[in-house]
Amino acid sequence: MKHPVLPRGAELSLPVVSAVLLTLSFPPFHLLVPPFIALVPYLVFVGRAPQDAEGTTSVRRATFWMGVVFYGTLLYWLFAALVYYTWLALLGYFITVVVLAILLSGAGWAIHVFRSRFSIPFWVSVPVFWTAVEWLRAHLGEISFPWLGLGHSLTGFPWAVGFADITGARGVSVWLLAINGVAAEWWTAGVKQRARRYAPALALLIALPLAYSLVRWSTLDMRPAARVLVVQPNVPEDLKLDRQAAKDSARVSLGALTMEAVAADTAIDLMVWPEAALPDFYTYDRDWSLWAASTARRQGKALLFGTLDLKRGANSLDYYNAALYLDRSGSNAGVYRKHKLVPVAERVPFVPTRWIHITRLEGRDWRLPLLGNVGSLMRWFGGYSRGNEQPLMEIDESGFGVLICYESIFPGLSRSYRRGGADFLVNITNDAWFGRQRPWWSRTSALQQHPAHLVMRAIENRIGIARSGNTGVSMFVDPRGAKHEVTDPFVADARAADVMTTDGTTLYTRLGDWPGWLAAAGAVLLLLYAWWQAPGGFSRWIRRREA
Description:
There is one protein chain. By secondary structure, the protein is of the alpha/beta class. Helices cover 48% and strands 15% of the residues. It contains 19 helices and 14 strands. The strands form three sheets. It has a six-stranded mixed β-sheet with strand order 5-4-3-2-1-14. Strands 8-9-10-11-12-13 form a six-stranded mixed β-sheet, covered by helices on one side. The protein is globular and about 75 Å long. The protein starts with 13 loop residues before the first helix and ends with a helix.
C-alpha cells in the first residue's frame, strides 16, 4: 500500500500525547495548564518530520489519528448516551469522529507544507489553519457542529478570558494556538534563541490578554435586569418517552417546586421551566396549557416554558420545538421557535421534513436488512421545522432572548439577541438525553460540556444568562462568566437569583466572529500562494489559458 492508513512509529507517540492533553483541557477534567501546551508535543513531531512528500503524508496521517483519539474521547457521549434509543448511535458517533479528524488532518497537512516549503513558523500557521477548521465546523449548514472549540477550554476559568468581549471564543482559540506555536518554536530552538526571541514573545503573548481580562473581571459594572426562578423538575428520559406519563410527572414536580420557591421569594419576576416541560402541542393539551396559565396568574409572575408548536397551512404541516411566554395574567405574550436543530434527532440534514412525515405514516411495514422496521426506526429521526422569527420577550423594563438547548453552542444567535436590545438570555434545555442517574457510566461528560458554552456567550456579549435544565445542570451566569446557583444533576430543584447585565455593547457584539473570518480568509490566501509558488502551478495555468 502506497499510503497506509494506520499510524506507525513516531506517529503513535507525540501526537497521541497532544490528543490526551486536549481532552484534559475540556470538561469534565477542565484543567488550566493543558490548553496552553497541549499542541506542543504534536508540533515538535511536525517540526521533526521529513521535509518532503513522505513527511507531509506522515503528518497528515498522524494528525488524523490524533483527531480520532481527541474527538473520540471528547465526544464519546454521542454513543454512550444515545445507545439507549438506537444502535445507530454507534454509526453517528463513528461518522462524527472520522469527519472531524479528516478536517483536522487537512490543517496538519497545511501546517507541515508551509513550514517545510516556505518556512512559515508555527505561531503563524497553527492559529490560521486550526482556527479555519473550527470556523468551517461552524459553517456547514445543517450539519454545523461548533461544539467546544479550543477557546472554550478555559470556560472553567472565566477570569482568564475576559478579552472574549473583543474577540469572541474564536479569538481565545487563536490566542491559545499562538501560545502553543511559540512554545513549540521555543522548544525546538537553540538556547540563545530561546532566551532572546521566544521567551519575551511568549511572556508578552500570555501577559497582555490576561492582564486585560483580570482588569475587566475586577472592574466590570453590572446591574440586575430581572429576578428569575429556574426550575429543574428532574423528569428522567425513560419517562419522557411516555408522553402522558411525562406530562403528569412534570406537572406535579413543576407545580410543587414553583409554588415553594415563589412563596419563599416574592420578588421573582420571571419563572422558567425547561425545554419540553410540556412534551406536547400546547394548543392540543388544553388542560395542561390552562394549568400553566393559571399558575402564572395565581402567582402574579411571568412564565416561560418549553413546549411544541404547530402550524397548519393549506398544503403543509410544520411543527416546532418552541418556548411559550406567558405574562403575569397568564396570557400568551410570545412564542419562540427553535432555529438551530440537532442533526438527525430534530431534523434529518438535507431531507425535506415532509419526507420524514410520509415515512412515519407509511413506513410501518417497510423493512430493511439490519435496520428492521423503518416506521419504528423513524421515531428517532426528527422532522421539526426551523423557526425564523427571533422575538425579544419583555419583563418590566428588561428584554430577554430565548435559547433552546443546542442553540447555546452557536455564538451568532446570542450576539443577535444582544444587538437587538436583549438585557439577558434564558436557556431552556432537556439534557436528560446526555445521561441517566444510574448506571454511573451513563452520566456522560456532555452534562458538563453543554453548559460550559454559556460562559463564553455571557463574556462575549457581557450579558447575564439563566439556564433551566430538566435534569440539570441549571444555573445563572453573570456577564463576567462566573456561574452562580449551580444545581446538581438528577435532583429536583429550583433556584432564584438576579440575572445581571451591563450597559453598552462589546466589540464582539458589534463585529461578530472577526478572528474566525480572518483565519478562514488567511487560510485561503496562504493556500492560493502555495499553489502559485508550486512548480508548474502558475505556469501550468498560463499554458492552459494560452491553449
